[in-house]
Amino acid sequence: MERTHVPVLPTEVVEFLKLEQVNGGLFVDCTLGEGGHSALLLEHSPDSRLIGVDADATMIERARSFLGPLSSRVEFVQAWYDEFWNSYSGPRPHRILFDLGISTFHLSASGRGFAFRGDEPLDMRLSDSVRSAAELLENLSQEDLADILYVYGEERYSRRIAAAILRARDEHALRTTRDLAETVASAVPAAYRRGRNNPATRTFQAIRIAVNSELERLRAALPSALAALSADGGRMGVITFHSLEDRLVKWAFRAASGDDSAVGRSAVTAKHSNASKFAPKLIDTMVLPAGERIRILTRKPVLPSDEEVSANPASRSAKLRVVEKGTVEESR
Q1: Within its chain, how far is the Cα of 275 from the centroid?
Q2: Homologous superfamily of the 10-99+216-331 domain (CATH)
């Protein structure tokens, strides 16, 4: 078995989570993947233990294999991270990490249709507990599909692409990722097709987010994870890869810190038809256990270095935000 994924911002994760300060603590890696970040956490804190959460059973087994001897300090949990936090009743973790990026394994080797360069079934599921992309597209109206592409993919040609996808669907010409990518390309202007990114990039992102309810899960998980975090200097980091994710995390952290400017903020910056139907609401209130408070450690997100982007292009859009938890008495 060959490891395919390179964890992003490894130096920054170690630095901002201050792993050496919590040797013997409990960590939670909410997006285990192939275990790259989990290995970092465990190696820098050799007496700590970790709960590794992933919705995909395949990734659990890959992580178990790649972590090797470190696996003896890991409790592997197959679950969506929002479901994990909704039912969590264990000891309060000292460090929590979310890496919201899609694993390179899913993109290049899973065969589940996450990427537009191959010709795979329209699946895009991170777990078989949800419906596939094909099933989603089969049942959406043109208006709803356009709104999903606009909100989740921030796709400027969402209406044109949605119309083309429904025509292809009705003609039974939408079976694989290649069909979808070619349909998108046929719907957009020639200049857009010649841009830096493949014209199907935003459409694939939007459909994947909708299939896996990614933003809704993030919105549900953040308050529960923050509430569970240890108040004895506990730290939580979230790595995002697109603006909607980052906006949710940014304002959730601000709400948790008591910043009233978070109230009433929208996750979507422009109106488009009935887009509010799909736009995730920002978290503008946060209930923490009595006497606990959150301090934001990254007023601006931490970005990868030029060297990392050069070595690992997949890291170029990564952003890390980190908070620390303490007590009200400590802040006085």
Answers
A1: 21
A2: Vaccinia Virus protein VP39 (3.40.50.150)
How many whole angstroms separate alpha carbon 168 and alpha carbon 133? 15
- pLDDT digits (tens), the chain, 332 positions: 666 678 999 999 999 999 888 889 999 999 999 999 999 999 999 999 999 999 999 999 999 999 999 999 999 999 999 999 999 999 999 999 999 999 988 988 889 999 988 899 999 999 999 999 999 999 999 999 999 999 999 999 999 999 999 999 999 889 999 999 999 999 999 989 987 889 999 999 999 999 999 999 999 999 999 999 999 999 999 999 998 899 999 999 999 998 877 665 555 554 444 455 666 677 777 889 999 999 999 999 999 999 999 999 999 999 999 999 999 865 55
| Secondary structure class of 323 (helix, strand, coil) | strand
Q: Are 323 and 17 in contact (CB under 8 A)?
A: no
113 neighbors 134 (Cβ within 8 angstroms):
no
Domain boundaries, the chain: 10-99+216-331, 111-212
* CATH number, domain 111-212, options 3.60.15.10, 3.40.225.10, 1.10.8.60, 1.10.150.170: 1.10.150.170
